[in-house]
Structure of Nucleoside diphosphate kinase:
Amino acid sequence: TQRTLVLLKPDAVRRHLIGEIIGRIERKAGWSVTALEMRTLDRAILEQHYAEHIGRPFYEPLVEFMSSGPVVAMVVEGERVIEGVRQLAGPTDPIAAAPGSIRGDYGTIVRENLIHASDSEESAIREMKIFFPGLS
Ligand code: GTP
Ligand code: MG
C-alpha cells in the first residue's frame, strides 16, 4: 500500500470545492485520508515543495498563487494511490484534461489547476516530510 501527498490549491478552497475533491478521493475503494491540515503556505515552504521548478518562468507566479490563500494538505493512503490520485486529477493543463477528471471538470488555467499530487514514491516521501514532519 502507498501514501501520497495531496494539496487542494487556493483556487479549490476559494471555489468551495474541498468537499467535492476529497469526496472523489475518498470514494475510491480502500483509499483513506490519514492526515489533513488547512494552512496558508509561505515562500520558504513553497521553495522546498517546488524546488525542481525554481528558475522556470512560471515559478514566481506559481509561488504567488500558491501563497494567495489557504490550501488543504493531506496524506492519502491506499492501493496504487500515487498513480491513482494523479489519474483522478488529470493532466497539468486543465484544457487537456478529460471531463470526469478533477482538472478537466473544474479548471481552465494551467496555474490554477486545483490539486497537487506527488508524482512518484520518492516525491511522496519528500513532500510528506515537508508538510507532515511528525508522520513516521
Ligand atoms: P503539481 O501536482 O502541482 O506538481 O502539478 P503537476 O505535477 O501536474 O505539474 P508540475 O509539477 O510540472 O508543475 C507544478 C505546477 O506549476 C503545475 O501544477 C501548475 O500549477 C504550474 N505549471 C506547470 N507548468 C506550467 C506552465 O508551463 N505554465 C504555467 N503557467 N504554470 C505551470
Ligand atoms: Mg508536480
